[in-house]
Amino acid sequence: MSGREALVTGGSGFFGGVLKRRLLSEGFAVTNIDLVRDDDPHPALTKVQGDIRDAELLARLFAEHRFEAVFHCAAMLAHDVTDEKMLWTSNVDGTQRLAEAVVTAGVRKFIFISSNCLWGENLGRPVTEEETPAPVEIYGRSKLEGERVLEQLGCEHPELRVVTLRSPTIIDEGRLGLLAILFEFIEDNKKVWVVGDGGTHYQFIFAQDLATACIACLEYPESNLFHIGSDDVPTMRAMYESVIRAAGSRSRVASLPKVPTIAAMKLAHKLGVSPLGPYHYRMIAESFVFDTTRIKRELNWRPTLTNEQMMLRAFEYYRAHRRAIHERTDVSAHSKAAPMGIIRLLKWIS
Fold it and tell me: Which residues are paired to 162 by β-bridges?
């Protein structure tokens, strides 16, 4: 063991679990705090099933451990909760209390996983860190407020190094959620639908590449904000076709008209019969790509997988574990299949 110790919030979830296991494999002792039970066995893993809004629990944790860094991956998603107040307090107040505990304990490094949901429209160019965020739904607003909380605390306590990583959709084996709907269509040889001609470009990030960036932040001497994502982003149509071919599926990509489809998605969301919220129906026919120049320059970081490669990994996992996946309940939103809702009608006519 290296003697290095880290706290991961949300380590029972999809990416938090990837990062937790990566840190353990590199010799760290890791404490995971999560509302969801952690079933991973490891002698250097401390499991805490609890709430980051619980200041007394956090105080005990930081008194019992000497954390080199905190990796804040925990977040509630809009499509996984019906109580918006709970989402807001978890994502914002939880971040505030965690950061205050970090300062009190004298921990010097705080790595925060933020999101591309800070925007809900195509800016027509790769989005740099200087762009002004404009979130369109509560999850994006909560992540932006979390960033502001950390920025303010960093100004008040310059000894604290805060590194924020704004991430697009994180993909790897085991990434499910809304992707499970797409994978079910492909596995069942149904049409895979795009809105418009499918010529849009939407960037993903390989989970292990994001974990590599997180670990690189430990040696980074400053506070900073980084955009992260894959290179050479293909069109959505090309990506789907690549996965369909590799899977040996009889699916084909078909187009839905943009204006009526988005209108129908908005109505379905208002009626509560669709898993797709405002961010999804705004971005489903738009392009969005982060400019990753800064993180490549400052952290010497490079992505290792393309969108097509990581999506195929995620699909193959779904294919191998489909029955068990659809029986999952007490796991994080990204580790189980999202409810299909009215989208099942589209599957029936595909």
Answer: 110
Q: Residue 328: pLDDT above 90?
A: no
Phi, psi dihedrals of residue 57, rounded to the nearest 5°: -60, -45
Please choose, from the candidates 126, 131, 117, the residue with its C-alpha nearest in 3D space to the C-alpha of residue 167: 117
Closest of 103, 132, 106 to residue 119, by C-alpha:
132
Q: Which residue spans within the chain are E strands per DSSP?
A: 5-9, 29-34, 45-49, 69-72, 109-115, 161-167, 169-171, 192-195, 204-206, 224-227, 253-256
Q: What is the mean pLDDT of residues 180-185?
A: 93
> If DSSP codes are grouped into helix, strand and coil, which group holds residue 102?
helix
Question: Which region, left, alpha or beta, applies to residue 64 given φ > 0 means left and ψ of -120 to 50 means alpha?
Answer: alpha
Q: Tell me the average pLDDT across 289-312.
A: 97
State the architecture of 5-170+203-227 in CATH terms: 3-Layer(aba) Sandwich (3.40)
For the chain, the structural domain boundaries read 5-170+203-227, 177-202+235-286+308-348
DSSP 91: I
Q: How far is CA 51 from CA 72, 153, 188, in A?
A: 13, 21, 39
Instruction: Tell me the C-alpha distance between 7 and 30, whole Å.
Output: 6
Each residue's pLDDT tens digit, 33-88: 999 999 999 999 999 999 999 999 999 999 999 999 999 999 988 766 678 899 99
Q: What percent of the chain has pLDDT over 70?
A: 98
User: Where residue 1 falls among pLDDT bands split at 50, 70, 90?
Assistant: very low
Q: Which residues of 287-322 are buried (b: 16+ CB within 10 A; e: fewer)?
A: bbbbbbebbeeebebebebbbbebbbbbbebbeeeb
